[in-house]
Amino acid sequence: MTPSNVEQFWEAVQKRDSGADGTFYYGVVTTGVFCRPGCPGRTPNRENVRFYTTPADAERDGLRACLRCRPLALTGADPWADRIAGLVRYIERHAGEAISLADLSREAGLSPYHLQRSFRAILGVTPKQYLDNQRVEQFKASLRNDTGRDVTAAIYDAGYGSSSRLYEKADTRLGMTPMEYRSGGRGIEITHTAVETRLGWMVLGATDRGLCFLQFGDEPGALRTAMFAEYPEARFSSMPEPAPVDFEAWMARLHRYLDGQERDLRLPVHVSATAFQLKVWRYLQSIPSGSVQSYSEVAQGIGQPTAVRAVASACAGNRVALAIPCHRVIRGSGELGGYRWGLERKRVLIDTERRVA
Ligand SMILES: [Zn+2]
C-alpha cells in the first residue's frame, strides 16, 4: 500500500464511493469495526482509520465486520446479504416504531420464512432479536443521556408499547432491570455474608442472579457498611444457615481459587454499571488467569485506545473483586499500579495465578 493509494482510499471513504467497494476496506480503531468504502455510516476521523486490502487483514487486526455495510458480503458468500444489510438499516431507523415481521418481509422483498432464515444465517440472530436489541440499545442510550428522565417515557420512546415487555428483555440483556440500572438497587434483594480467607476478611453480597459485591478488608463491619452504601435502596438479609447449594458451590470454588488449587474463578456477576464499565469489566474477564495487561492494552482491547484513564477508573470502580479480575491490570512500566484492596493482595493474587498457570 503506497502513500498515494492511501490518499485515494481516504478520498473514496469521504465520498462513500461504492464504486470502490471490493478494492479495499477501512477499519475504525475507535469503534472496532471495518467497512466497505461505500458504507452509509458516519465518516470517521482520519486519524482513527486504517486501510486493508482484504477483510481477513482487518479481522487479524482485531476488527469486526460492520453490520450496516456488511463488507464480508463482497466476498460473495451470501446472495441475500445485500438485502439483509438494507433491512438492518431499516430496523435501525425504525426501531422506535411498531414493526412486524410482515413489515420487514415486505421491506426486504422476501417471504417471512426466507427472511427469518437468511437473516439468522447472516447475523446469527432473528430479525425480532435484532430489533429488540436495537430497542434496548436506544433505551439505554436515552437513560444515560438524560439521568433525570422518566423511565416510562424512555420506554415509549424506544418503541415499547408496554413497559413489562421491555422489563423482560432488559433483564436478560443488561443483567439488570431499568429501575435497578438507575436507582441504586431499588427492588433487588441482596443476601450477604462475611468469610475469613488467606487474604483477610471478605464480604460477599449476592442477588438471585450473581455476585453484586465482593470486597476485602481487615474487618467485616466496615465492608458491610460499604456494601449498604453501594446499594442504598436494596433490601439486605444475612445468608441463611445452611446457605443455598449454589452459594456453597461458589464459596468452595472461591477458596480453591485463593489457595491456588483452581486456575480461574468464573462466578456469575450481577452488578449495576454504566455501559463503559460493563465493556471494560467484560474485557477484564477475558484476560487469562496468570497473565496481566497494562491499562493501555485494555483500552486498545476494547477498541478505545485513547480511553486509558477512563479504563483505569473503571478498574478502580470495580465492586466485585476476583470475579471481575481487575488485579490483572498493571501499569505499562511493569509496576503493579493501584488496587482498591491493597497492593499486597494484588501481588499475592498475581503470584498465585502465575504459579497455577
Ligand atoms: Zn460500514
By DSSP, the count of extended strands is: 10
Strand order of the largest sheet: 3-1-2-4
Strand content: 5-15%
SSE pattern? HEEEHEHHHHHHHEEEHEHHEHHEH
| CATH superfamily descriptor of the largest domain | Winged helix-like DNA-binding domain superfamily/Winged helix DNA-binding domain
- Rg to the nearest angstrom? 24 Å
Q: Share of helix among residues?
A: 40-55%
Identify low-pLDDT runs.
Answer: 160-178
Per DSSP, the total helix count is 15
Largest sheet: 4 strands, mixed
Average pLDDT metric: 79
CATH class wording of the largest domain: Mainly Alpha
**Distance, first to last CA:** 41 Å
* Overall body shape: globular
Cofactors, ions and other ligands in the entry: zinc ion
Q: What would you say the CATH architecture of the largest domain is?
A: Orthogonal Bundle
Give the CATH topology of the largest domain.
Arc Repressor Mutant, subunit A
Our count of domains comes out at: 4
Kindly name the structural category: alpha/beta
